[in-house]
Amino acid sequence: MGRPTIKDLATAAGVSISTVNRVIGGGKVRHATMRRVRDAAAAIGFYGLGSIESRVGAAKAKHRFGMLLHQPHRTYYRMLADALVAAGDRFGGADVEIAVEFVDELTPQNIAGRMLALGGACDAIGVVAAVHPLVARAIDALQGRGVPVFALISELEAGGEVPYVGADNWKVGRTAGWAMHRLCKGPGKLGILVGNHRYRCQEQNESGFRSYLREFAPEFALLEPLSTFESSTVAQEVTEGLLREHPDLAGLFVAGGGIAGAMAALRSAGAAGRTVMVGHQLMDNTRAALLDGTMSLAFSVSLDRLADLAVSGMARALDAGARGGGLGAVLPFEICTRENV
Questions:
Q1: Against a cut of 0.85, is the pTM above it?
Q2: Residue segments in the chain with a per-residue pLDDT below the cut of 50
């Protein structure tokens, strides 16, 4: 058999012969198409693979991705920021710069305004935000300008599809209910803390939690959820109040922000280890709480994996000129106890 021809390469790559000629000769071709031609050339053993690889490398796309995260004093979001920057550095499909902005004021007006400003300086953005009409309007405006918007950690909605990268939070809630059912010494009262019900992740946590208990453990009494407003100080205050009102509290599920305050309240009230506590993310403080028995179980998602999927999804969105369409990803979560941290 003779060596593969340009026509063979065009067929293998699913492009025209003229497109292959432009890739080889240095003409204007989309970077995604160039990579497809390169991959096809490698697969069929095309004689000009070296020059095609050089052309792809020289024309490497350059992207600036903006990431809008919550308050910088919160360890979890600093960890997420570091993971996103590292994911941009190691992404091989393009030169990616990650611009991280932290938001102290979490009002919908401020979030929407910061999204629009960040989107004006970036090719795509990722955001942690609550569902709100102002946020949805900002997403629609950005998508209308060709700036893909990705929801990180908590799902969002707008006129167009918003790809989501994070855990299946309903399953997280169901698993929290399963854990309470098995870890509590007997039926009793269960408390739940949420940061803000407009965060879809927290709403799904609570819904899944209630769903499991209603189905398999109706003997437990689930108290009305209390809001922490994403503040550790508020979380400590409401947990202390919960323990004063219900000194026999069997369990506490922290579905939103403020876990450090909830842990402090359990310790100060002498309820650490007596009240089963389930929460989120493996950080220095939650690891210590697992080890000393203040916390019984934590759910954790790999931030490196989340960051890689967010960055690659944004790059694919730009290559395809797409808003969403399967570019998000649902990540598995780990169950952490003091026996495996």
A1: no
A2: none
